[in-house]
Amino acid sequence: MALTSETGVETVLAVDHLRKVYNENTEQQNVAVADVSFTVAKGEFVCVVGPSGAGKTTLLRCISGIAAPSSGGVSFEGRPLTDVPDQLGLVFQDYGRSLYPWFTNGKNVALPLRARGVAKADRAARVAEVLASVGLGHVEKQYPWELSGGMQQRVAIARALSYRPQLLLMDEPFASVDAQTRFDLEDLTLRVRRDLGVTVVLVTHDIDEAIYLSDRIVVLSKNPSVVKEIVPVDLGADRSQVETRSSEEFLRLRGHLMSLVMPHDE
Ligand SMILES: Nc1ncnc2c1ncn2[C@@H]1O[C@H](COP(=O)(O)OP(=O)(O)OP(=O)(O)O)[C@@H](O)[C@H]1O
Question: Which keywords does the record carry (predicted)?
């Protein structure tokens, strides 16, 4: 049964005293995540920030069920996570390696649907719908290498959304594109999240990006990481790149987050 928070909103994800040690009990032992706990409510947008090497990617691997925690755990919709759940969409930084160059964009988007046994006619309709939702209805028959980097990442986002996930996990998804494309992809992600009601957890190095996108920001300490602070972002539902980023509240949050993640504060 799904848990509910004090506010009565359903908790989709609960990370409970998660610890991840690589190469445990060997000379190469490395505590990547020391002790991290937080929850994510249904429909919420949560960003995870922290210094380089803090264990952000490791945390996301554990949340997605790709890697097993050394201790502590993750619950998804009230059930302990033991595998990669079907209701999960994943988007990584490296779209160049996540799309298959020998498949058309449409076929790339259809892959998870095939894996889940969705019938051919439904697959075709779903692919067309989801590519249109990221503004790429016209590239279905083309190949990834015929598109710009930003367009390829939109195809990767469409693929993650194709099976209508409850939870979208994104690891530095906009780090490999230029600044203007990055703003466009941020706005696309906010729109998709609003239209589909999907819950999002996104890892980023970029404090401004985290503030622009989030309802709450989980700030990790330097490695081995613990949660330093969970910062609520009270910027309203309607955000715009120019106005939101120049608002007083945005600048206040930026100052606060900088003081949390800068090395002198450790
Ligand atoms: N597969 C692995 N095997 C062993 N150690 C690993 C592995 N993956 C990551 N690590 C180590 O775990 C620590 C945390 O790495 P991780 O990539 O999770 O951090 P990060 O916060 O995402 O880093 P960055 O911000 O630089 O991308 C680092 O010391 C890294 O070397």
Answer: ATP-binding, Nucleotide-binding, Transport
Q: What is the 3-state composition of the chain as percent helix, strand, coil, each rounded to the nearest 5?
A: 40, 25, 35
Residue from 133, 137, 81, 83 nearest 106 by CA: 137
β-strand partners of 199? 167
Residues with CB under 6 A from ligand 1: 22-23, 30, 32, 50, 52-58, 205, 223
Q: Residue with the nearest Cα to atom 1 of ligand 1?
A: 22
3-state secondary structure of 238: coil
Which three-class secondary structure string do you get for 45-72? EEEEECCCCCCHHHHHHHHHCCCCCCEE
Distance 154 CA to ligand 1 centre (A): 26
Superfamily of the domain at 3-87+166-265: P-loop containing nucleotide triphosphate hydrolases (3.40.50.300)
What pLDDT, in 10s, does the model give residues 140-166? Answer: 999 999 999 889 999 999 999 898 888
CATH 3.40.50.300, the chain: domain bounds: 3-87+166-265
pLDDT in tens, 45-100: 999 999 888 999 999 999 998 899 999 999 998 888 877 777 888 888 887 778 99
Q: How far is the CA of 58 from the centre of ligand 1 (A)?
A: 6
